[in-house]
Amino acid sequence: MSSIKILADSTCDLTKELIEAYDISILPLMISLGANSLKDGVEITPDEIYQWSNANGETPKTAAPTIGDAVDFMKPFVEKEMDLIFFGISEAMSATCNVLRLAAEELGYKQLYVVDSKNLSTGIGLQILRAAELATKGYSTEEILTDNHRINEKVRSSFVVDTLTFLYRGGRCSGITALLANTLKLKPEIVVINGKMEVAKKYRGNQKSVIMKYVKEKEKELMDADTSRVFITHSGCPEDVIKDVKDYLHNLQIFKEVIVTRAGGVISSHCGPNTLGILYISN
Questions:
Q1: Are both 124 and 161 inside the same structural domain?
Q2: pTM
Q3: The organism sits in which domain of life (predicted)?
Q4: pLDDT in tens, 176-217
Q5: Distance between CA 283 and CA 266 in Å, rounded?
Q6: Are residues 56 and 187 in the same domain?
Q7: Which of 121, 152, 183 is the last residue of a domain?
Q8: Residue 170's closest CA among 142, 197, 133, 207?
């Protein structure tokens, strides 16, 4: 029986420590700063993206990995004849999942199983860690995929953005919407529904107070969450804000783990700095 290898793309926003602890291999997406195409998390950092974006008045373009990169990424595991379970960013947002399928075709490899996370950031990460834990416990590939099918649509991902400037630059909202929101100091909550980003609530005020209001309004939903873990994922928020959110979630005494991660280059490119989200699996 083949061993199982969990693979993912760089939009999963897991920390280096989690990636190493769960033995996950990450395929970076591409980020283009003008003519320079760089690998997310390998050749470019979010802070460098913000600097470039503010200096040039535009948001970097993001793209799926090349088929060549995907082939090279898979080869070591193909040679070991492992079952490969790949968790990719929502297919409604990116061609990454399909690139992996095409790479497997090029390699003539039948043991690749592509999971459309229908999500982004640690909404993917939650699914990855669950699958990795099951693999460690000796579950089969089929059992892991069945479990994911059961919980895939129960993953809850949302975040509050500080400014719509980056979403506007990336073509995710109109200039008028961004101008009005920024002028009125509106901070929209973005939620992932059916693999796509949608605007839910709109908050007003400074980002610190908005974030705490957003988190507290999640309490009822959090009480009905899977207790394994909850993610606080941010794109460069002040430490005191992150600490307040973490303390609040700890004090609810619901989750075994409250994990803080920083969003990678792709997510940061679209959301901009001072974005923070709470991500978990609902029961």
A1: no
A2: 0.93
A3: Bacteria
A4: 454 455 545 678 888 999 998 888 888 988 899 999 999 999
A5: 29
A6: no
A7: 152
A8: 197
